[in-house]
Amino acid sequence: MKINNIILRHIKMDLLHPFTTSVGTERDKDIILVEATTTSGHSGWGESVAIMEPIYNEETVQTNWHMMIDHLIPLLSGEELNHPDEVSERFKKIRGNYNAKAAIEGAIWDLYAKVNHMPLAKALGGVKKTIEVGVSVGIQSSPDNILKQIEDYVKEGYKRIKVKIMPGWDVEIIKLIRHHFPSIPLMADANCAYTLQDIDHLKQLDQFDLMMIEQPLAHDDIIDHAKLQSQLKTPICLDESIHSLEDARKAIELGSCQIINLKVGRVGGLTESKKIHDLCVKHNIPMWCGGMLEAGIGRAHNIAITTLSNFSLPGDTAPSSHYWKRDIIRPEVEMNSGYIQVHEKPGIGYEPDRDYIEELTIVQKTIQVN
Fold this sequence. Notes:
- By secondary structure, this protein is an alpha/beta fold.
- It has helices at residues 61-72, 85-91, 98-115, 120-124, 143-156, 171-180, 199-203, 223-229, 245-254, 264-267, 270-282, 296-306, 354-360, and strands at residues 3-21, 24-38, 43-47, 130-132, 134-137, 160-164, 186-189, 213-214, 236-238, 259-262, 287-289, 329-330, 339-341, 351-352, 361-368.
- It is built from 13 helices and 15 strands.
């Protein structure tokens, strides 16, 4: 598989509704799209999940653009690629920059699947024909607002409700939700908002039969999470702390979590995602695929990885209409009674809407791969 060009496009999309977490509010999304092409006319697409400010991790849209052009894409030159797994090997000399690596690798995975006339899900080893869909509820202006949102989502058929929490918006709001919805699958996502000094406070969440509490402590911690998990009945799910297979291995060995949220962009791509999946299978650690407000291309990659067998919990893979007035793919991602059908077309299974992408593009650059 000889890559001819890599085309980068910086686009900007308005979110349908503002989304608030403990680290801030997002009203729109700047996105880098990566298109990898061959001389035979095939093209594969990837999407960077980096945002404009380094508040989720150290990466931003601007740093991704720089790293892709000046450091990562040049490593694709030389011998042809036989398989997308080789991309992560070529990128190994560059430390970190997982969002940038994942976007390029994702485009090459899509390209590989199309060249070989198979769905991306099958190329990854996926086994599911449908995936269960969960939804994330941001911090709201009032308790009444969050109850109304959850009521609507339950009616739409979502298989799991995730509620963002932070100090001052946690125990009492979860108590209220549980009172109104005593049997829904419910979890809390803290986005690193607490410390070990909050152990007694967080223990109060044990009474609400939560599926999990996600990333309660620091974004780079696995040690304190082990101490916290030993004190909680509620399973801890790690998110920001897991950047690699090694992070997952150490967290599992330390007992830092009982569940892992896998984000393809956070761990550097689909190849590393597969390795983490296989490790979790070995240790009976359930997984689910998290979301980072992806547009359609990134969402299609999330659907594909979720078809692997150990993604046994509903992920943050809500349909396109949940986030965007209009998505950048055709058809858009659709949900039926809490399930998304996995497409059987080659590659990601969706066609980029080139005309609309052109409208949204702020800047575009083509890099020839020699």
